[in-house]
Amino acid sequence: MAILEAKNIHKRFGGTEVLKGVSFSLDRGKSLAMIGSSGSGKTTLLRCLNFLEKPDEGVIKVNGETLFDAADPSTHTESDVRRKRLHFGLVFQQFNLFPQYTALGNVTLAPELLAKDDPSYGSDKARILARIRDEAKDILAQVGLSEKMDSYPHQLSGGQQQRVAIARALAMKPDILCFDEPTSALDPELSGEVLAAIRRLSERNITMVIATHEMGFAREVASQVIFLSDGAILESGPPEQVLSNPQTERLRSFLNAVL
Amino acid sequence: MGAGLADVTLNLLEGFKLNCIVFAVTLLCSLPLGLGLAFCSMSKYRAVRAVSKTFVWIVRGTPLLLQIIVVFYVPSLVFNVSSLGRPDAAIVAFVINYTAYFSEVYRGGIESISKGQYEAGQVLGMTKGQVFFKVILLQVVKRIMPPMSNEIITLVKDTALMRVIANKEIIMFAQEYISGQGLIWPLFYSGVFYLAFCGGLTLLFGAVERRLSYFRA
Ligand SMILES: Nc1ncnc2c1ncn2[C@@H]1O[C@H](COP(=O)(O)OP(=O)(O)OP(=O)(O)O)[C@@H](O)[C@H]1O
Ligand SMILES: [Mg+2]
Questions:
Q1: Is the ipTM of this complex over 0.90?
Q2: Ligand 2 ion: Cβ-proximal residues, 5 Å cutoff
Q3: What's this model's pTM, rounded to 2 decimal places?
Q4: Is residue B158 pLDDT above 70, yes or no?
């Protein structure tokens, strides 16, 4: 069953329509790779899923629950959005780590704040915080950063920073983890370690939506690829089909340019 | 018959006490008020932005000296209500003036933080308040330390202006030695008080900046 359904997403900035009716669905435990040239709308689509932009039209459903419906204003209220966006996690191109917290602090901050909403927080604070810390250490170990837990972001390489950002997103246990070109701010020799970390997540059947320019990686990790062009999905399907047997001239020339 | 050092010291201290009180109360009020005004200047409501920007423009565009005089005289002469005491009027004028200056320092600091920091907090499910207090504020504090230190040191010296409404601050005491006894050295001595006070503040700000040097923002 589809864990994520996006239907007919439209987004306009001023007069220009950046997303022109994007629809796709994704099964639990699968990964979707989003490819497309600069300006095609990949970031905008990911931002819509994470409620950083409000689509002008369209519906977003997770596990069959309608999280957002442009036609139904009752799905747009501020406090609701905060709860709903926890279904999604987002790893940014520029990492956006919090500079004043250690790697571990970056991972525990949001879970700690969220735990305060828990009715048993008052009586059980020490145990809850200890559990959050242990989980965060586990997650950092999974991305290969056990040694760097107490380092501040400026003391880490770009690849390590991005892996902290991945750990930080994972700690919120999102249903769907989104990546916006997670390696394009990195030197080639550092992107390998980040891609490896994401690959391990796909082996653990974490549901992911990944905007990427790394075609080899998309082929390996994704069960589905969509090609965005000018705000619309021009082609979609399994990677072997989309990447090896492009049907449109646009996709053919895009693939030739990036390979 | 000259005045002894101990004598002069006690006298000048008496005056400097007033400078210190005005300094402390102004800081205590203007630091939080300035933050509030900074938020108003960045409000999503145009009217709120317009009002606070006009306020800042007027306060920064006119002499502090004039503001002190206005605060002291205008209530009684124009509105016919009893005027504030002399020190109180000075404090009110300083608070108004420094709230405007501090708000601009805060605004500069807050606007320099990248949008990505807010968005990273938001997508992790933090409330706007949590993002501000847990993520943004300390980065802002670190960034505004140098300009804020400047403003605060200027405030120390600006307290001398309150004598324009006959507040007996330290330089006024020192000057009485010139007119009364033809003694010039107490005037220089009063400068030493300012120097020492600003020196202490400089050390304090340096220590705060070192405390915040563990991260880069
Ligand atoms: N806040 C905004 N205001 C106005 N236009 C915007 C805004 N955000 C994005 N756009 C425009 O929307 C279009 C799609 O941008 P988007 O960032 O989604 O593309 P992208 O596929 O992520 O590109 P890239 O590969 O360069 O990251 C671009 O033409 C961009 O200029
Ligand atoms: Mg982008």
A1: yes
A2: A 43
A3: 0.90
A4: yes
